[in-house]
């Protein structure tokens, strides 16, 4: 008898097995399996400048992801795409005490429409000025990140939807994502050295020659240090300075063209942080040494800042140059060259007094102006507050640098006319000095800018051993003499600048299921086991 | 993700074994230590198989996407050692047919559960990341239990001296299917590109078919005696 009974049992068991499996599948509807995704994220700036704190104060993150249109944002990681980003949404996330904000940027920024790029550029200083204790990260979009974002968006936006059964089914099957960063909490970097480089070309004809100083800061700034490439500001300035160094060192190598001016070239670091490099260099040269080119006869200091595109060129001064001074001579020569050789270029002088009550100085020449050295800054921007100077959108692919070689030529010609005193000797404004073998090399400029923008140049990332500093030093030493490094370290007791670390992290996105899902699964498994037990129990066969 | 999930998977994997042990009456026969001995034999057989495979079979050096049918077939043939091991266990146990089969199968399957499933579950199911493969693994262990019971039954039938002539062929076929089941499964997955849930379903159906046939043959054999 028990054989037939066992056969019946076996039948029942065997047929109910695949049936319960199918039932289970129908109930739970599993999604396509996706592994955890790992991607690099770049943190927003965090620094103290002259005692004032800026940027996001926190680096650790271990929260669930939501998109910005979800209702409950508190203690969640809010993910926003650049195209949907706006200041109101950011503030809304902060108001609801979100755990973190991750802004997803497209891989190729040039695909973004110009108005979105412009809008973001204008938002960057506001983002930095808003006091945030939540970590703000930027990530570059790839396929998996996009799919994570889409899935999060679907589950976030349907949270307020219809019936209880739907909500239950949805929460049971939804794929949540847990975002976890692997690093530690951010802390201040101690003893960071900002490096500046100087080099010179000595003039012909003995002692006491007047000195012309050419300055450009080589670091860049943006809302995220690892994403600040600074193509125009100030990659263009550095490229112009290096090309001028090459041209004038060639002129100075021939006895007949060796002029009676000393040329001092200075690549300053920490420029975006209120020109720390220049400040300390001036202090060391004027206060702490006995003899330096800066102490004696300085004709003028020309700072180069953002000379990439556009048909404008502005000479920013803190007080209008007096007649007969070398400054005035340069101003006149620039006007002459612009008028005769490049009529489409609009050149003008902009006068702005130094305002010592401001948090930060406007242009680099103001540092020199404070120490009573005649200085001005040449830039195509009209105002120092222009967002193009502090943006991560300032990339090679987005900023065009068409006017760069023309501007280099204008500056070179004007400088040559001052050094060789050509106007007084009656040379007309159309004579071009830098032609043929002495011509400004456009591909050299282009490759310099390409190299400069190939890696981020934020001041927090360039220590004294970085490859950029070393390469700049090597380049300068090919054309100039006496190439020296100058280090700036923040004062121990009252630091002018403090940088923080943990600026680049690896973020992991783990697929998680909500807690209800575990309970549901437990109930299903319990019922399956119960069926199994009952089936076996009623047909004990030994 | 989390201990709760691990608990779910573990109970899904382990409870059917527990139920089978309790309800098949093995506990009345104090069969626990015999099951443990069967488990030890399983370990020994697996060790021998691994040594054999490592020594005599070269690593496959073809392209990555090509499935080495012949090589995998040869490797599956080594699984005949499983049958030998089961036969060894059953011959050392005195008792009725069903008792021998159940003891051998329970011990064998439990040893396989502990050796090959516990550690992945412990390490994987407790992590943050959720993956369906842990539930699938637990289901798979259920299927293996049924598979080993069927396999033990077929081996027992094969070694019976009073097996009718007409049964020889079906029993041999079933024996072959049992041994090459893993190979067949991989073949199906590779050729038809089955998803993981579908593969599990196919495996369940295959095991169900094998065990049904073996049960039918077993019942007929016992009944005719």
UniProtKB/TrEMBL annotation, chain A:
It is found in: Endoplasmic reticulum membrane. It comes from the Eukaryota. GO terms for biological process: regulation of signal transduction. Keywords: Endoplasmic reticulum, Glycoprotein, Membrane, Signal, Transmembrane, Transmembrane helix. One of its GO terms (cellular component) is endoplasmic reticulum membrane. CDD domains: M28_nicalin_like (cd03882). Residues 1-35 form the signal peptide. It is a single-pass membrane protein. Residues 210-409 form the Peptidase M28 domain. The chain crosses the membrane at residues 515-536. Belongs to the nicastrin family. PANTHER family: NICALIN (PTHR31826). This is BOS complex subunit NCLN.
UniProtKB/TrEMBL annotation, chain B:
Pfam families: DUF2053. Keywords: Cell membrane, Endoplasmic reticulum, Membrane, Transmembrane, Transmembrane helix. InterPro entries: TMEM147. It is a multi-pass membrane protein. GO terms for cellular component: endoplasmic reticulum membrane; plasma membrane. The chain crosses the membrane at residues 101-123, 143-159, 171-194, 200-222. It is found in: Cell membrane; Endoplasmic reticulum membrane. Belongs to the TMEM147 family. This is BOS complex subunit TMEM147. It comes from Cyprinus carpio carpio.
């Amino acid at each position: 008898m028990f054989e037939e009974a066992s056969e019946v049992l076996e039948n029942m068991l065997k047929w109910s097995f695949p049936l319960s499996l199918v039932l289970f599948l129908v109930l739970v509807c599993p999604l396509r399996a996706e592994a955890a995704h790992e991607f690099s994220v770049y943190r927003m700036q965090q620094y103290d400048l002259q005692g004032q704190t800026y940027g996001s104060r926190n680096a650790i993150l271990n929260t669930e992801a939501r998109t910005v249109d979800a209702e409950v944002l508190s203690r969640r990681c809010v993910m926003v795409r650049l195209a949907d980003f706006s200041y109101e949404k950011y503030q809304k996330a902060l108001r609801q005490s979100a755990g973190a904000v991750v802004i997803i940027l497209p891989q190729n920024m040039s695909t973004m429409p110009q108005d979105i790029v412009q809008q973001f550029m204008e938002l960057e200083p506001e983002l930095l000025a808003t006091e945030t204790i939540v970590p703000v990260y930027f990530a570059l979009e790839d396929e998996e990140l996009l799919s994570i974002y889409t899935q999060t968006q679907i589950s976030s936006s349907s949270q307020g939807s219809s019936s209880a059964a739907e909500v239950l089914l949805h929460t049971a099957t939804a794929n949540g994502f847990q975002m976890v960063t692997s690093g530690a909490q951010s802390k201040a970097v101690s003893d960071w050295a900002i490096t500046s480089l100087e080099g010179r070309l000595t003039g012909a004809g003995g002692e006491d020659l007047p000195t012309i100083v050419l300055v450009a800061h080589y670091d860049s700034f943006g809302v995220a240090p690892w994403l600040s490439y600074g193509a125009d500001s100030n990659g263009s300035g550095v490229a112009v300075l290096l090309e001028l160094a090459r041209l004038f060192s060639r002129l100075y190598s021939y006895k007949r063209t060796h002029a009676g001016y000393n040329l001092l070239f200075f690549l300053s670091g920490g420029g975006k942080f209120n020109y720390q490099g220049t400040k300390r260099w001036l202090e060391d040269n004027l206060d702490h040494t006995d003899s330096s080119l800066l102490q004696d006869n300085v004709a003028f200091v020309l700072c180069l800042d953002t000379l990439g595109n556009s048909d404008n060129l502005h000479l920013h001064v803190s007080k209008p140059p007096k007649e007969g001074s070398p400054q005035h001579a340069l101003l006149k020569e620039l006007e002459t060259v612009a008028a005769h050789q490049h009529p489409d270029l609009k050149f003008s002088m902009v006068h702005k007094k130094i305002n010592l009550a401001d948090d930060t100085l406007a242009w680099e020449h103001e540092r020199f102006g404070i120490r009573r050295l005649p200085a001005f800054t040449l830039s195509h921007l009209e105002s120092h507050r222009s967002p193009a100077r502090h943006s991560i959108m300032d990339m090679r692919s987005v900023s065009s640098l068409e006017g760069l070689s023309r501007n280099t030529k204008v500056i070179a010609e004007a400088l040559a006319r001052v050094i060789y005193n050509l106007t007084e000797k009656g040379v007309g404004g159309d004579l071009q000095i830098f032609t043929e073998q002495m011509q400004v090399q456009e591909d050299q400029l282009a490759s310099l800018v390409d190299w400069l923008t190939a890696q981020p140049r934020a001041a927090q990332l360039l220590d004294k051993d970085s490859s950029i500093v070393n390469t700049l030093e090597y380049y300068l030493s090919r054309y100039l003499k006496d190439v020296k490094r100058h280090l700036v370290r923040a004062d121990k007791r009252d630091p002018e600048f403090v940088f923080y670390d943990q600026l680049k992290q690896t973020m992991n996105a783990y697929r998680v299921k909500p807690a209800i899902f575990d309970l549901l699964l437990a109930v299903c498994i319990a019922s399956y086991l119960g069926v199994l037990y009952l089936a076996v129990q009623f047909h004990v066969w030994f | 993700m989390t201990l709760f999930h691990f608990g779910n998977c573990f109970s899904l994997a382990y409870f059917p074994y527990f139920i089978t042990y309790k309800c098949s009456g093995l506990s009345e026969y104090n069969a626990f230590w015999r099951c443990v001995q069967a488990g030890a034999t399983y370990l020994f057989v697996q060790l021998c198989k691994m040594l054999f495979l490592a020594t005599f079979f070269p690593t496959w050096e073809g392209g990555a996407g090509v499935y080495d049918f012949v090589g995998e077939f040869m490797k599956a043939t080594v699984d005949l050692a499983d049958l030998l091991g089961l036969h060894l266990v059953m011959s050392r146990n005195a008792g009725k047919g069903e008792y021998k089969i159940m003891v051998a199968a329970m011990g064998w399957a439990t040893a396989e559960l502990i050796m090959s499933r516990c550690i992945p579950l412990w390490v994987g199911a407790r992590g943050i990341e959720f993956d369906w493969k842990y539930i699938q693994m637990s289901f798979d262990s259920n299927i293996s239990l049924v598979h080993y019971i069927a396999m033990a039954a077929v081996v027992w039938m094969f070694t019976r001296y009073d097996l009718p002539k007409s049964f020889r062929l079906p029993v041999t076929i079933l024996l072959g299917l049992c041994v090459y089941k893993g190979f067949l499964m991989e073949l199906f997955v590779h050729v038809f590109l089955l998803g993981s849930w579908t593969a599990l379903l196919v495996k369940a159906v295959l095991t169900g078919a094998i065990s049904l046939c073996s049960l039918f043959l077993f019942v007929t054999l016992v009944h005719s005696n």
